[in-house]
Known about the structure:
Blueprint: H1 19-28, H2 37-52, E1 57-61, H3 67-75, E2 80-85, E3 100-103, E4 106-110, H4 113-121, E5 127-133, H5 154-158, E6 164-168, H6 171-185, E7 190-193, H7 202-209, E8 215-219
Parallel strand pairs: 1-2, 1-5, 2-4, 5-6
Antiparallel strand pairs: 3-4, 6-8, 7-8
S-adenosylmethionine binds at residues 62-64, 68, 84-87, 90, 112-114, 133-136, 201-204.
Amino acid sequence: MTTKSSIVTSNQTAVHKDLENSVRKHLTNSFRKPYRPFSAEIFHKTNEIINSLDMPIILDSGCGTGESSHILSKQNTDALIVGIDKSEKRLDKFISNDNFYDKDNLILIRADVIDIWRMIKQSNWNIKKHYLLYPNPWPKKNQLKRRWHGHPVFPEMISLCDQIELRTNWQIYAEEYKQAMEIVTNKNVIMDSVETIDFISPFEKKYYDSGHELYRVSTF
Ligand SMILES: C[S@@+](CC[C@H](N)C(=O)[O-])C[C@H]1O[C@@H](n2cnc3c(N)ncnc32)[C@H](O)[C@@H]1O
């Protein structure tokens, strides 16, 4: 029997009061942390393949075990799926020592997206869609900076392509992310529920099986 996942609990009961200030600050001060050599090496390897192909790219950032990237590669045979996760353990099923997997229309890399997103931005990748599936919620009030929309890399991340889809099981995360997207893009952003049994990722299945509400926030 699989164990149920607990619902997200937090000492924060609504959108964070510092959200707007934080997003506006990150819009005016660009994020300059140097790339780690390890990330640069992996990025260059990936970039060589991308430059040798003429295919639109679908990013799956924080792809966990890589299963969602596999599903996306089967659903989108005309695109190259790039799944990225920094965890030492999560990609073990597909990647051994070299932190890299390349097969058919799927590339999986073990790297930190905070570096990789900025390197992609400097390159000419033709990104069709970007998925952010069930990021860690960091639900404590003092953890806003750890959520994607509270991080200084946020404006660069959302400038990578027009179509971005975030899924989460924490309503406040979805609401904050939506507001932050609207501040940066000036566009209407759609927030709805995920109503499916065709699970796209292991966390989606785990949360669904535990009876959680699943939220999706998308731009087109
Ligand atoms: C809650 S898991 C979700 C995994 C998968 N997307 C799913 O839905 O099953 C969040 C994942 O994000 C990854 N992650 C968090 N911060 C990251 C970063 N800066 N760079 C790359 N991966 C990151 C973690 O290692 C973890 O695998």
